[in-house]
């Protein structure tokens, strides 16, 4: 299922609409390195990195991390994407080790965190005075649910033989015993229902940053063909950045 999600996110360019937002945040924080939290199988990461390196940030790099690392999947991405690296040790997104620096990103995973944990994830970025971007490849809308139970399962049946690396087990659990499509439908619907819309993202950010050290922006951007990407971006305010520079 993770292979399928990575393939679809990459093939559809799900996160391409947020590349200008991410480039602007990197410029504001004067960073070229991103630290991706909850990276999973790394879906969409390589495409975003390539777009950044060929447009606004030629020196952009990204380090994949997860509480349950997937080095085998990440090594394949690393071989095909210059500037991509990964941390093989488990990384808790709510308490990131100080040695792991960079502008923090969360793709397709923030909805897994209940409010208290989501607030802790944002608060840790505020505490470290490093910027953070949260991106969800959908909007909390009935049309997204309709896509999750109709169009996407059909697409999954059509594209599964082309997913690499090829596995006979993937074919069996897609066509013989269709657990992967059923789990994907369930996961997609639950993810959309648990997703935080922009106003809730801003509310979480304000609770995580009660002293107003960051500037926060949340919203929705669209692909030209319709689907939405929900985002929250926080960058340290100028005063906070100056304090951080003095301390370093």
From TrEMBL:
It comes from the Bacteria. The chain crosses the membrane at residues 175-196. One of its GO terms (molecular function) is methyltransferase activity. Keywords: Membrane, Methyltransferase, Transferase, Transmembrane, Transmembrane helix. InterPro entries: SAM-dependent_MTases_sf. One of its GO terms (biological process) is methylation. This is Class I SAM-dependent methyltransferase. It comes from Hymenobacter rubripertinctus.
């Amino acid at each position: 299922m993770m292979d399928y999600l990575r393939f679809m996110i990459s093939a559809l360019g799900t996160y391409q609409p947020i590349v200008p937002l991410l480039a602007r945040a990197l410029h504001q924080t004067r960073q070229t390195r991103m630290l991706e939290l909850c990276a999973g199988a790394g879906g969409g990461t390589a495409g975003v990195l390539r777009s950044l390196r060929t447009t606004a940030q030629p020196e952009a790099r990204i380090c994949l991390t997860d509480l349950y690392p997937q080095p085998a999947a990440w090594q394949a991405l690393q071989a095909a994407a210059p500037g991509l690296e990964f941390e093989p040790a488990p990384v808790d997104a709510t308490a990131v080790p100080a040695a792991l620096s960079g502008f923090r990103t969360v793709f397709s995973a923030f909805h897994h965190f209940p409010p208290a944990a989501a607030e802790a994830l944002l608060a840790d970025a505020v505490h470290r005075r490093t910027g953070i971007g949260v991106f969800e490849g959908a909007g909390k809308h009935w049309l997204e649910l309709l896509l999750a139970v109709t169009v996407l399962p059909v697409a999954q049946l059509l594209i599964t033989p082309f997913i690499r690396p090829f596995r006979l087990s993937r074919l069996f659990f897609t066509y013989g015993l269709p657990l992967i499509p059923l789990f994907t439908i369930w996961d997609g619907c639950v993810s959309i229902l648990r997703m935080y819309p922009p106003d809730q993202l801003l509310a979480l950010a304000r609770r995580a940053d009660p002293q107003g050290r960051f500037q926060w922006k949340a919203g929705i951007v669209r692909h030209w063909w319709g689907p939405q990407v929900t985002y929250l971006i926080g960058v340290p305010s100028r005063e906070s950045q100056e304090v951080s520079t003095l301390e370093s």
